[in-house]
Amino acid sequence: MNGKNVLEAVDLYKFYHASDEETLALRGVNLIVPRGQIIALKGPSGSGKSTFLSCVSGIIEPDGGYVKVSGIRITRKSDARRAAIRAAKMGIMLQSDGLFDQLTVRENLIMKMWLAGNVELNRIPAMADALGISGLLRSLPSRISGGEASRAALALALITNPDILIADEPTGEVDAETEKQLIDLFEAYRKQGGTALIATHSDSLARIADRIVHLRDGRIIDEL
Description:
This protein is α/β, with parallel strands linked by helices. Helix content is 33%, strand content 29%.
């Protein structure tokens, strides 16, 4: 990947309409994520964190502004083109783990690589070993614990060696022990030069970030 900045979000606006009511979820948000940085996005519920992540990952289109991923503009593209860029350039980790229930963990990893257009089966053992899920590869998601599912979801996000990991409250629904395991994995990812944008309420997770960006009422109010 060429270029210093992996993600550029410029002047993002997003409106939601319900009947005659209009909610301004994002109000001119600007954020640059350089290669090799972990950025924690913090803010109260309803501050716009999930909307912002959905816009920068191309899941939804902003109503104003634009987003570039590794120099490629993802906004104002067709749904199919945005999905292709997302699959090739991003690893997405959501609270709902994103695993297909009818596929084993291994089959989920293969499916993710296939969607990204680059199936490298030799990546699976190393990734599974690094994240402690080697014994889960032949299991269906419904047969593993919540903590195991979280580690499998992280493997799913990273299996294509994406330019950036985007995670929405990755420790929001796990117990304290699993949270610590996940934080350790994110810290190892940071030390290896990984790039990530992580929305989180966890102070412990935010502490491993290079930068902490605070969002409130759809605006960035400060950065540490």
